[in-house]
Each structure stands twice: as C-alpha cells, then as structure tokens.
Amino acid sequence: MSNSNNNSIISLNGVEKIYKTKAGPLRVLKGVNLEIKAGEFVAIVGPSGSGKSTLINMITGIDRPTSGEVHVAGERLTNMSENQVAKWRGRNVGVVFQFFQLLPTLTVIENVMMPMHYTGTYKGKRKERAMELLELVDLPDVANKYPSQISGGQQQRAAIARALANDPKLIVGDEPTGNLDVISAGLMFALFEDLVAEGKTIVMVTHDRDLAGQIPRVEEVRDGQLVAKEEIDQRLVAGAGA
Ligand SMILES: Nc1ncnc2c1ncn2[C@@H]1O[C@H](COP(=O)(O)OP(=O)(O)O)[C@@H](O)[C@H]1O
Ligand SMILES: [Mg+2]
C-alpha cells in the first residue's frame, strides 16, 4: 500500500529492515510507520542499537528498506535507483553526521561549495553563497583553513553550512551534537531553531535528554519500533512525580 499524505514531507509505511549477518538475518526495523509534516522539528531518541541510525538512513535514502514504503520530499524513494536517490538527496536533504565528515583535503569553504557542483548553482555564485553560509554559522574567519586546523565545534558548524548549501527543505542529523561540548551543542541547537522558524523541517537523533526536551516532537525507537506517544507521555509524567 502506498500512502503519501500530501501534508507530510516524510512518510514511512510498514518499513522493515533486515540485515544479513554471519549469525543470520537481523531484523532491525520492525514495521515502522511515521508521518512528519513540513516545518516540524522532531527528535529521535532511543537506546543504542535500537535502530535510530537505520531509521534515519531510510529517510535520507542512504539505505533502503527490505520492505515497506518511504516517501520523502515528494518522492517515493523505494522506487528510485541509487543514482536517482543520490541526486534527489543532493537537492532536497541536508545531512549532518556525528563525526562531521568534512573532506580533509578540501578547505572549509571548498567543503561548503562541494554540494553545489551537483546542482545548477551558477559557478560564479558558489563561492559567494558558501561565504554567506559560513557567516550564518559564524565561521567566515576559517574559510581557507583545512578541517584539521579547526576545532570540533567549528567542524560541525562547517558541516551544517555544507548541509545548507543547496537550501534543502529537510535537514537530517544523526547525533549531530554527539561529539560537541555543551556550548557548541547549544549554538548548533539555536541554529536549528532558526532554521525551523524559517520553515525548514528538521529530524535529528540525539542522546542528549536536555536537547530532546526542547524539541517540540519526540519519537522514541525501541527495539526497531516506534514507541506510542501516549506511552512516552505517561513515562514523563511518572518520571516527573518521582
Ligand atoms: N550494515 C549493517 N549490517 C548489519 N547489522 C547492522 C548494520 N547496521 C546496523 N546494524 C545493526 O542494527 C542494529 C541497529 O543499529 P543502528 O540503527 O545503528 O542503532 P542506533 O543508531 O539506534 O544505535 C544494531 O544491532 C546494529 O549492530
Ligand atoms: Mg546510531
């Protein structure tokens, strides 16, 4: 059954993911249904190994489900070739990882310009746009440095600038603050809030309870399934009373 709700920027229907391992098939996502509307700010939480990264990779098209349907930003990813998905992702999704993943042989500004090579951005405009983004994340001074020459917090801000290069409507982070000190994580979170205020949709995995508590919608993954919202609410109430 394919069900792409017009209102949803992300729609997962019955998503199952089974990895083949030496020990046999490992069922990691067990029928996930998820609807996220354009403009939402959503935290994904859950214990280590519960399937959060696998779920995020379904949304970005970095990986595909064993069965079920994935619609994101107007496309049915489960129908597209790997090449088509890569092109689609470059235009529509900004992805931020825990370990920044900047290219070490490129300068900061070259890293930010990189995604623009794959879209129509006019060559003369790329540098100008990259510099604007570096100003947005408060990094104009390190534009010509290499990633190894700047701090982890600065690298992550550069990675965010890169994720924004093609002005994606959707930004997806897999523990983007996981490797940052409290101040850098706070700055990054403030930037995400600004982006949501501008109308972007953000989905981010986080281990940080304080951050998750400030995000309007929290989805919890437990053993490959999303926990019903009522159950999370009850636990929060129970926790508050303790
Ligand atoms: N490519 C893979 N091949 C086999 N098993 C995997 C693969 N990726 C993840 N897993 C397993 O799937 C489970 C969920 O992993 P993951 O989605 O990374 O969890 P989380 O992000 O919540 O920590 C783990 O048991 C992990 O070892
Ligand atoms: Mg993970």
Q: What is the topological layout?
A:
Blueprint: E1 8-21, E2 24-37, E3 41-45, H1 52-60, E4 67-72, E5 75-76, H2 82-92, E6 93-96, H3 108-113, H4 123-136, H5 152-163, E7 170-174, H6 182-197, E8 201-205, H7 209-213, E9 217-222, E10 225-226, H8 229-241
Parallel strand pairs: 3-8, 3-9, 6-7, 7-8
Antiparallel strand pairs: 1-2, 1-4, 4-5, 9-10
Helix pairs in contact: 4-5
Bound molecules: adenosine-5'-diphosphate (ADP) and magnesium ion (MG).
In words, what does this structure look like?
The structure is a single chain. By secondary structure, the chain is an alpha/beta fold. 36% of the residues lie in helices and 26% in strands. The protein has helices at residues 52-60, 82-92, 108-113, 123-136, 152-163, 182-197, 209-213, 229-241; strands at residues 8-21, 24-37, 41-45, 67-72, 75-76, 93-96, 170-174, 201-205, 217-222, 225-226. The strands form two sheets. The protein has a six-stranded mixed sheet, sandwiched between helices. Strand 4 and strand 5 form a beta hairpin. The protein is globular and about 50 Å long. The chain binds adenosine-5'-diphosphate (ADP) and magnesium ion. Residues 52-53, 174 line the site of magnesium ion.
Structural class: alpha/beta
What is the CATH topology classification name?
Answer: Rossmann fold
Label the CATH architecture: 3-Layer(aba) Sandwich
Terminus-to-terminus distance: 44 Å
At the first level of CATH, what is the class? Alpha Beta
In what order do the strands lie side by side in the largest sheet? 6-7-8-3-9-10
Number of domains: 1
Q: Give the beta-strand count.
A: 10
* CATH homologous group name: P-loop containing nucleotide triphosphate hydrolases
> What do the pLDDT scores average to?
91
Count the helices. How many?
8
Q: Helicity range of the residues? A: 25-40%
Principal-axis shape: globular
Unique ligands = adenosine-5'-diphosphate, magnesium ion
Beta-strand content bin: 25-35%
Major β-sheet annotation? 6 strands, mixed
